[in-house]
């Protein structure tokens, strides 16, 4: 077989709406299984202090966070609260980056869910249409030339949650937000920017790769790796 492709660590990008159903699995299995017992991280960006969302989950501000000790970028408040937002936290504040910035999350090696929350609206003088950016996780491209306002328009949702399953092999998950150069046809010549409202990281046993929940016990390496759609091995 000449054409083996390397295994791609991002398994899936799912719309988040399907996700709450999966979460209890990850959380319930988190107990003291393995590396998966590390606590989930809920970071609300562009804000300081702890606040709860409508599900009573606590979100830490990134303004005073150990994950972003010298966070750059601008703390910005959303100009408008869309009635369809599920909760003001984390959507009503954003951190805006006009140049690259990397958050470093010290996590145990293993698979984790990563959710990125975006509410594309004007943030002060930052127009929604000028948000155009890429996101990488440990050099793996998660989003590229992401036009969040266009994506929201196309989906008819005011907010966007992007979900990734990432296999972290080192001791940290480094998330980089990088403004993309404007495309010549965009009509944007005031500069583009990157932003994010919330970052959620949930360490999880390999539920996508495990035929039975045996990993809850700290189980064996799984002999049946999950093959991504369109992937080949
Ligand atoms: C589970 O956690 C408890 C308390 O933290 C500890 O005493 C126990 O040894 C752990 N069990 C395993 C299998 O790690
Ligand atoms: C929210 O969480 C706090 C602390 O974890 C708890 O005291 C409170 O009862 C919870 N409220 C609701 C409505 O679940
Ligand atoms: C995650 O990465 C580690 C180290 O490269 C590898 O041993 C493990 O099989 C990977 N897990 C999955 C599910 O790909
Ligand atoms: C910012 O990140 C992008 C994408 O990762 C990269 O192409 C670019 O060179 C970076 N810019 C700087 C100044 O590091
Ligand atoms: C993003 O998409 C919107 C809607 O299609 C467009 O008006 C805007 O120019 C785009 N922004 C960039 C930077 O390409
Ligand atoms: C650039 O931004 C300034 C100030 O926000 C605004 O007055 C101007 O119309 C913008 N120019 C373009 C081409 O969008």
Which residues form runs of ≥5 with pLDDT under 50? Answer: 1-37, 211-233
Order of helices and strands: EHEEEEHEEEEEHEEEE
* Ligand species: 2-acetamido-2-deoxy-beta-D-glucopyranose
* Radius of gyration from the alpha-carbon trace, in angstroms: 18 Å
Structural class: mainly beta
Number of DSSP strand runs: 14
What's the overall average pLDDT, rounded? 77
Shape: globular
Strand order of the largest sheet: 1-11-8-14-2-4-3
Note the total helix count: 3
**Distance between the ends:** 9 Å
What percent of residues are in strands?
25-35%
| Helical amount | under 10%
For the biggest sheet, the summary is: 7 strands, mixed
SSE layout:
Elements: E1 13-15, H1 23-30, E2 41-44, E3 50-52, E4 58-61, E5 74-77, H2 88-91, E6 93-97, E7 101-106, E8 110-118, E9 132-137, E10 140-147, H3 148-155, E11 160-168, E12 172-179, E13 194-196, E14 198-203
Parallel strand pairs: 2-4
Antiparallel strand pairs: 1-11, 2-14, 3-4, 5-6, 6-13, 7-12, 8-11, 8-14, 9-10, 9-12
The structure holds 2-acetamido-2-deoxy-beta-D-glucopyranose (6 copies).
């Amino acid at each position: 077989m000449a054409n083996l492709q390397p295994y791609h660590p991002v398994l899936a990008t799912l719309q988040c709406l399907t996700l709450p159903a999966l979460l209890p699995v990850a959380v319930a299995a988190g107990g003291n299984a393995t590396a998966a017992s590390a606590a989930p991280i809920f970071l609300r960006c562009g804000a300081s202090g702890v606040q709860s969302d409508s599900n009573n989950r606590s979100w830490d501000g990134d303004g005073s966070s150990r994950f972003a000790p010298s966070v750059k970028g601008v703390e910005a408040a959303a100009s408008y609260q869309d009635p369809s937002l599920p909760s003001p936290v984390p959507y009503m504040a954003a951190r805006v980056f006009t140049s690259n910035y990397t958050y470093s999350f010290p996590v145990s090696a293993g698979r984790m869910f990563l959710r990125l929350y975006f509410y594309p609206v004007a943030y002060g003088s930052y127009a929604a249409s000028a948000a155009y950016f890429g996101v990488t996780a440990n050099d793996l491209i998660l989003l590229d030339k992401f036009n969040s306002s266009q994506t929201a328009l196309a989906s008819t949702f005011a907010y966007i949650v992007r979900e990734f399953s990432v296999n972290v092999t080192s001791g940290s998950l480094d998330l980089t937000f990088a403004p993309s150069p404007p495309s010549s046809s965009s009509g944007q010549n005031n500069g583009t920017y990157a932003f994010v409202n919330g970052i959620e990281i949930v360490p999880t046993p390999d539920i996508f790769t495990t035929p039975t929940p045996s990993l809850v016990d700290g189980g064996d390496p799984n002999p049946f790796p999950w093959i991504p759609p369109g992937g080949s091995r």
